[in-house]
Amino acid sequence: MSVNAAEALLRLRAGNQRYVADEMTLDISHDVRRRLAAAQEPFAIILGCSDSRVPIEVVFDQGIGDLFVIRIAGNIVQPSQIGSVEFAVQKFGTQLVVVLGHTQCGAIEATIEELRRPATNQSGNMAAIVSRVRPSVEGLLDEIDDYDDLVYQAVRENVRYAANALRHGSRIIESFINDHALTIVGAEYSLETGVVDFFDGVSPA
Hints:
Elements: H1 5-20, H2 30-35, E1 44-48, H3 56-59, E2 67-71, H4 79-92, E3 96-102, H5 106-116, H6 124-137, H7 147-167, H8 171-178, E4 183-189, E5 196-200
Parallel strand pairs: 1-2, 1-3, 3-4
Antiparallel strand pairs: 4-5
Helix pairs in contact: 5-6, 6-7
């Protein structure tokens, strides 16, 4: 039975609070693995960054089978990520998608560096990531002088941009949103505190 978006968000908030308080209940036992071998019912989809410091199931204190996780540098949205969301929504009835960025994001910093001092030998693959992050960064370069503040604001803008790209990147996803069967929100994980701040597409807790 699918979990509605509001309940899914409450579960994620509660799990993150347990993580921050060092009171985790994460169950990754062999019994759980065996029980879920035949089927899964993830209650939330998380599109997050590949950064090794952001272990998504741990951050939300969720176990095997709870989350459908999509990870890519800079939590950017490309066709494969959109297709993965479509798959989970249609296959499992999952009603909540979270685009999860994080502080001190290397993809954001690399994009800022590229925009300020374009590289002459950047690989095409790296350029593809930078090009997806670029719209979130370039509008801030002339507005913010402080580097740390620029990175902070760019991380959040990149989350907003990615969330909107998901909301409007697929007729399938749009249809579920219009039918109130899917909610997409944006959040930021703090490397410094462990706290996840849900700030886009959702009312503050």
